[in-house]
Amino acid sequence: MNTLIIGIIYVLGPVLLLYGCKRSAWLNQFGTVGLAYVFGIVLGNIGIIKPEIKPLQDNLTSVTIALALPGCLYCPGDIGSLFFQVLFSRLFKIDTDTTIIASAAFIFSAPFVPTVANALWNKEIILSGITIGIIGYATGNFLGITLAYLLK
């Protein structure tokens, strides 16, 4: 019974948050993502999620990822960039950890680098990843400004 209730909360919670933010200007001030974080933190700390819910969470995560993958087709720039990055990493024999941290810095930005480095159990690559992310930001800004002037 507890698994059924949690499953319903997991499925309907985001739908209700989206509906609430669309209907209420007050809720919309906080944003759907911010409210989803608060909802998740509260749900995780009130004690109704037990360890036996883990298989349900794994299944819902797998379904969510499978549903989100087609969305990657709408961002071919990121996929193309990642393809060339991996290709050049292989050509120049750059190690896997550096390739992963560089792709995280390029796609997700510098603040995500320490999280990825911790997941890789390699804290030595944090500085290079943050540097790559900052250089990517700076280059992107200058290219954007240059393109705006050229198209003017």
Describe the overall structure.
The protein has helices at residues 2-23, 25-30, 32-45, 54-68, 76-91, 96-108, 113-119, 126-151. The protein starts with a helix and ends with a helix. It has two domains: 2-73, no CATH class; 75-151, no CATH class. α6 packs across α8 (126-151). The protein is built from eight helices and no strands.
Give descriptors for this structure.
2 domains; mainly alpha; 152 residues
Q: What's the SSE blueprint?
A:
Elements: H1 2-23, H2 25-30, H3 32-45, H4 54-68, H5 76-91, H6 96-108, H7 113-119, H8 126-151
Helix pairs in contact: 1-3, 5-6, 6-8
What would you report as the Rg, rounded to the nearest angstrom? Answer: 20 Å
Give, in order, the helices and strands.
HHHHHHHH
Percent of residues in helices comes to over 70%
Mean pLDDT: 81
| Parts with pLDDT < 50 across at least 5 consecutive residues | none
Helix/strand-derived class? mainly alpha
N-end to C-end Cα span: 62 Å
Count structural domains.
2
For the secondary structure, the number of strands is 0
Strand content of the residues, in percent?
A: under 5%
The main sheet comes to: none
Global outline: extended
Q: Helix count, per DSSP?
A: 8
How would you briefly describe this protein structure?
The chain has 152 residues and is an all-alpha fold.
